[in-house]
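Researcher: Structure prediction, please.
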Amino acid sequence: MEKISHAASVLRRGGLVAFPTETVYGLGANALDEKAVAKVYEAKGRPSDNPMIVHISRASDIGMLTPTLSPAIVKLADNFWPGPLTIICKKREEVPSIVTGGLDTVAIRLPDSSIAIELIKLSGVPIAGPSANLSGSPSPTKAEHVIADLDGRVDVILKGPDSRIGIESTVVDMTVSPPVVLRPGVLTADILSAAIDEPVELDPALLGRGSSDEAEDSAEIIPKSPGMKYKHYAPTAEMVVVEGQRKRVTEEIKRLKSMNERIGRKVGVILFEEKEYVEAAHDFYARLRELDDEKVDLILAGALSYKDGVGFAVMNRMMKSAGHNVVKV
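Model: Predicted structure follows.
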């Protein structure tokens, strides 16, 4: 508690604090302090039009950030907060545009981490908190990942437990009808739809429609959620996703590994057990970082099923990590 209290005082003074959550580690700044938020972009090397998620310590604090609450938003908060769900709402004028990427909406989350909740509560301010990594690199799920990326760039790193979930929160836009999932997570569109008793759709870009690699990097895109515009989650090594029937995927990974090793390349493999989607979510970023630490030249990853909601969320990260470099078998 003494360390959390110290970190909270750093946040109040406009400093930066990395902290654990159940999804991934976050890098926090006072969301109502423009200068503090600017330091986050600088520390991460993050593009300033990429919106941040604002973290609160209790559901009732959502009123500090948005002037309007619909019955559906209240249902989502009641059902899934604290937890891995980020809700996009209309923003109050008090929320600086630097936090929202210039948009009139704000992304809000109540994390399911006693350390994070206590930190936010003691600081007395909402916390803007993107993932605590250098922009573009795999998200951190362990304190040592944060230290490797941000030691010397931030004021405090709170070392807590490894992230329980391992991929970022689901982001749902509640300012449109029907609501739209902009970033998939372990809380799927079907789960959200059941909670509010109305359809929840997936953003067409997540389904490979209305978007391309060129469009994703286009200056015309205004991202409404973290992870929509820029290359994300990428290891240092080249990465290829092998997609197809499981037996063929295994055989092709074995063939590509052997072929590349014959020419002197060091090859790493990520191949999760079939239907082990929750485990894949938990382990994916850590595996990317392990393979980077091993200085591999190439990562071969076996694709998961898109039909499962959590598998779909992991594949969203896997495809971005690989820069959509796919071999189909």
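Model: Residues 209-221 have pLDDT under 50 and may be disordered.
Researcher: Thanks, that helps.
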